[in-house]
Amino acid sequence: MRLRIVDAFTDRPFQGNPAGVLLFDSAFPPDRWLQQVAAEVNLSETAFARPLPPGGDADWALRWFTPAAEVDMCGHATLATAHVLAGAGLATGPVRFSARCGLLTAETAPDGTVTLDFPTSSLTPVETPAEIDAALGGVAVRSVHDTSDHVGDLVVELADERTVRELTPDLTALRRYARRGVIVTAPAEDPARGYDFVSRGFFPAFGIDEDPVTGSAHTALAPFWSARLGGRTELTGLQGGTRTGRVGVTLKGERTLLTGRAVTVLDGELLTAP
């Protein structure tokens, strides 16, 4: 069984966010086996996809697993899957995915750029939870927003880019917080560098201490920063600590387009069958 490792939201190897991608010819193997494979791959997400019968609403069924659990939505592993399908000649034009969060589409341009069409997340202002304030080490928090159920993160606005980059959260404390994760964000210090805002994402409760580039989180970051940057609907986010990647976002009401590149860094064989 062929296993690819793809670095997503980057055009350079060993940057962006790596994802495993496995394609099946027919039905998915048992969930336990999928979870074991994701744990063995040990990346933030491994994507599993299988073709669907022609004539339906979607072309492929798509699922994502962290090393610890299945998740409802994942941007970078969807981009990685679209990159693999295009490279293998299995998809031309828009590809429709049936996933736990609904119908998603991806389209790969001739230059390799992939554009994902995802639902826009809602944002609800909330008070800073005491456990989050403690986990972030008491840094100044400007605002906190709860996201919609299909994302399930807290978006925490910090004072500036430097604070986001230098943040060292208490991951043990975050692991006890009963949400998917925490996204910290701030405006870019210098937009001339080619990005409008920065972010980092922490998901220790799902087995991911820090996710380098979280595509799904940008369905919340897009409306968040659009409202703060003059209503602009096309923005670029830079996410990550040691590894970084760029996500182009285009806000279209209830849908958000996520744009990025991808690089396959490993193409091998999984020797253990279901």
Automatic annotation (TrEMBL):
Which Pfam families does the UniProt record give?
Answer: PhzC-PhzF
Top-rank lineage group of the source organism: Bacteria
Family designation: Belongs to the PhzF family.
Record's protein name:
PhzF family phenazine biosynthesis protein
Return the SUPFAM superfamilies for the record: Diaminopimelate epimerase-like
UniProt keywords (A-Z) are: Isomerase
What taxonomic classification does the UniProt entry list for its organism? Answer: Bacteria, Bacillati, Actinomycetota, Actinomycetes, Kitasatosporales
- Residues crossing the lipid bilayer are none
